[in-house]
Amino acid sequence: MRRLNPVHWQWPLPAVLAWALCWAVFRELLGQGMALQWALGLSSALGVACSLWGATWWRRLLIAAGFPLSLAASLSALGADSLPAWAWLLPLGLLLLVYPVNAWRDAPLFPTPPHALVDLPRHAPLPQGAHVLDAGCGLGHGLQALRLAYPQAELHGMEWSWPLRLLCGLRCPWAHVTRADIWKASWARYDMVYVFQRPESMARAVDKARAELRPGAWLVSLDFEATTSTPRASWRAPGGKMVWLYQAPLPVPPGESA
């Protein structure tokens, strides 16, 4: 199955596939008699959805922007001027809805593997009805992995992008998914907070966990170690990613000051 997922294909194959799909849909919509600007909007929406295949922010932007830019170049080369100026704002607006500017400093949208967290209960047992948060839940892959690990827990997700929050809610109706800034919303009520961030964000996550998590609560990071704290446990999950587990109050590594 991994070979069939464009996320894992060698670059730029995901981009080429996305652009080809967008053009195919665009031509089909025009063939069905749809107005040019609406065909542009729907085909660009497909490009934004396909941008999830990119492993980095720049690749996502290239995938999403490829179709409207190539269409603009084609119309210019043909001397065509049949699109109103506002129509060219549709692709940008769709991109900003899915990837809000104030979320660009956080991790790119990249799904948690389904079985990445199955060993968590062995290291961090939780009581019935424990509150578990996926901070930055995206499309809900992390929530699904947490549900597999803790079927008895009450699962929560926070996501700033409202289209992703909506899709996550549809994919995970058993979770409480809200639109929120994970750095401004409180983590104090949760027994466990799960993050799949970037290395650059981990120090910030540790600071927030130190300030807000009650003693005994857990911070879980997939793939990236929090170098400003000492993990309670770490292990390699099925699929090869590392899981880093921290418990509040988060200790300071030897030789560093709090």
TrEMBL record:
**Which class of enzymes does this protein belong to?**
transferase
Fetch the InterPro entries from UniProt: FAM173A/B, SAM-dependent_MTases_sf
Q: Where are the transmembrane segments?
A: 12-30, 36-54, 61-79, 85-104
**Organism superkingdom:** Bacteria
Q: What are the protein's UniProt keywords?
A: Membrane, Methyltransferase, S-adenosyl-L-methionine, Transferase, Transmembrane, Transmembrane helix
Gene Ontology molecular-function annotations? methyltransferase activity
EC numbers, comma separated: 2.1.-.-
Query: Which GO BP annotation is one of this protein's?
Result: methylation
From the Swiss-Prot or TrEMBL record, give the protein name.
Answer: Class I SAM-dependent methyltransferase
